[in-house]
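Self-study notes.
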Amino acid sequence: MEFTAQLALELLPDDRAAVAALLAAQRRQSVSDILRQQKTDALAAELTHLIRHRPENERSVEYEAVEVLREFLASFPDHTQKRMLYTLMAAGMDSAQRPHHSAKAQALVNGHAAAEPEGAS
């Protein structure tokens, strides 16, 4: 003798409505997040394009130094290499008696940017 059984579980109507509302809200939030990210990416690309194409007479030595440093750091794809460079930079800033800047560079070693303390600059 062989028995077979079939069982169907369903949510109550209120629960089904709640789940549908939750899924709809998640979809709306996902679409909103994606659109915001696309706008942010487009704005960042536009601003980057504008910054890189400044007339030569508007570029300062400091601006060029930052660009050289950015290109230099980008040439090291390995995270451990970047950590070493940030450590060296922090040590150099510390030696130059710039502890605030050294702390910011040390925060990069730890994998995040340092928050700007109130009133500091």
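Second protein, same conventions, sequence then structure:
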Amino acid sequence: MNKSIKAENTEFIYWDNFDYQINDNILVSNDAKKYVSSEELLKICRPVFTEYYKKGVFMLDYLFWIDFTDITNVDLKVENNTFQDIDFERSVKTYFVNDLTCFSCGKVYKGALSVDPGLIYPNNFGLRDKKLKMINEENKTLQCHNCGNRFTSKVLHIF
């Protein structure tokens, strides 16, 4: 299922699968499914497409819930049009980083979900600050599992 929805005053196309195809109208830093299996990705995030400033061009991000939200329950609510903002309150738009490297110890991870410093929620620019505040106040950014040092970006999940 993929469905155009509006949650937290932000419109995007929500997917409950990774069957999308990348084309010239999609802006993406790295396509997560090139590096991580769809089955593994489905356990922790959902792809969302947000219309970019240019009509017909979309940004691919990955919604990641910073707690143990049952994402399949969110999928059902989206499919049945029974979702509410609270279902997305603990989610954050992320991008995929392949070969995440700790600059302190050199450990390389096959991939990670990280928060874009220019995080954009069209039509709700205050939401960016709210999400970043939530991440910071709850100390949700991860450190290197090998040495304990911080990464240079706000990493929320490591594969």
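Instructor comment on the second fold: Residues 94 and 115 are 5 Å apart (CA to CA).
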